Amino acid sequence: MTLTPVPRIPLPYALRYVVDPVGTFEAARRRYGPVFRMDFPGFPPEVFVTTAELAEQVYATDASGGRAGEIRRQFLEPLVGRHSLLTLDHAPWWRHRRLISPPLHGRAIARWRAEIAGIAAAEIARWPLNTPFALRDRMQDITLEVILRLVFGVRDTRRLDRLRGAVAELIDAAGAWSLLLMPPRPRDWLLAAPVPRRVPFLPTTRFARVREAVDELLYDEIARRRAAIDPDATDVLSLLLAARDEDGQGMSDQELRDELITLLVAGHETTATGLAWAFERLLRNRPVLDRLTAELAAGEDETYLDAVVKETLRSRPVVYDVPRLLDAPLRLGGHELEAGWMASPLIMLIHRDPEVFPEPGAFRPERFLGPDAARAGKAWMPFGGGRRYCVGAQLALMEMRVIIREVLAAVELSAVDPAPEKPRVRHVTLVPSKRTRVVARPVRSGRSRSAAPSRVV
Ligand code: HEM
């Protein structure tokens, strides 16, 4: 086959993606075809692929030296540490993956269902009524609580309170643009050297302080739980404390700390954003919302709810691309990518391929029901693919189903502004531009929420 160079998008044009990610990349696909390249200063050339078939070829490199960890390391290592599923590659990554997958397997987490519903119901009962608020922030409270209680397994109310506050501050400090945009070398020096750590206005100073506070709480939790292993516990930390690799080795305290932070970082904002998008879409597609509400109230099974969740993550994928750093050259769609380049399945466009998803802009859960479901399912990849496929996907999907059900049973939501909220780039995710602004009212039929105190503001 004759190979042609990968078309390259001029940088000023490409940078528009920060303000209009979907529009910019769709225009690039129209102009350059399904494979195109962008070169960001300081990074290897990044080649985006925009069909499911090409994406599968990229995922296949996971087994033969496509590295996902190294790309994430320079941004994430200060937060997640050196022993994280997100940033490891090769044998150390595989060892961790085999230890962490079983506790997050569909069968293992099925036991958490009632507790997730309870956490959601308690949080929803505290939402303001008849006044606008950002739903994404409230969803984040729920998903954080799920991680703290079911992944970390913290039960004691006082320790839970301290960890909740410290973790929220850590996520805030780690997400500051002033820290994220700092080049890795000066950042790591500022984090390590004693004198700059006393300069109060540096973003590294605040980050280092709150990271220390969280670490202290986590190492204390790990020590307590190691000292009194509970054989009946189902939380991830308890199961990891008991897990052994092929050589009979368990995880060290530092490995456990790094993986707990990893599951927090990878699992709580993503799921909250997915939930925020679910309601952003449902409130602008009344017939879908009405059918879902009626089916759930009638006690139907979760087939339609599941299709709504899938269509949400199809039309508004939370993570928009999943890059791999290539160890070897890769032939792709008539082009050759060089070793050392990045190959990135661009999920946001793969999910808008009109060949697979006709009228991709329409919110239509029926795509995932009926005769077209198998084809749609093959091109549906909100959790990435290959061996690096999201380890928390089953948990995320279950959380979304359970929490949507709890919300619909408790309150009637309406959008503050009927115009759709645009996807905005936030780190590696796409979030609703107004964080899903809604107003909540008690359900008219007086189901569970009617018993909750009214707090009209
Ligand atoms: C709607 C919610 C979520 C979305 C959209 C999402 C999406 C993703 C994506 C796209 C990847 C990269 C996959 C790849 O490179 O091919 C990923 C990786 C990962 N996710 Fe999720 N995720 C979600 C929720 C969760 C949850 C709840 C957890 C755990 C509590 C989690 C833990 C992880 C971890 C640890 C990785 C790294 C896996 C590895 O490299 O081996 N995620 N996720």
From TrEMBL:
<dbReference type="InterPro" id="IPR050121">
    <property type="entry name" value="Cytochrome_P450_monoxygenase"/>
</dbReference>
<keyword id="KW-0479">Metal-binding</keyword>
<comment type="similarity">
    <text>Belongs to the cytochrome P450 family.</text>
</comment>
<keyword id="KW-0349">Heme</keyword>
<dbReference type="InterPro" id="IPR001128">
    <property type="entry name" value="Cyt_P450"/>
</dbReference>
<protein>
    <submittedName>
        <fullName>Cytochrome P450</fullName>
    </submittedName>
</protein>
<dbReference type="InterPro" id="IPR017972">
    <property type="entry name" value="Cyt_P450_CS"/>
</dbReference>
<dbReference type="InterPro" id="IPR036396">
    <property type="entry name" value="Cyt_P450_sf"/>
</dbReference>
<keyword id="KW-0560">Oxidoreductase</keyword>
<keyword id="KW-0408">Iron</keyword>
<dbReference type="InterPro" id="IPR002401">
    <property type="entry name" value="Cyt_P450_E_grp-I"/>
</dbReference>
<keyword id="KW-0503">Monooxygenase</keyword>
<dbReference type="Pfam" id="PF00067">
    <property type="entry name" value="p450"/>
</dbReference>
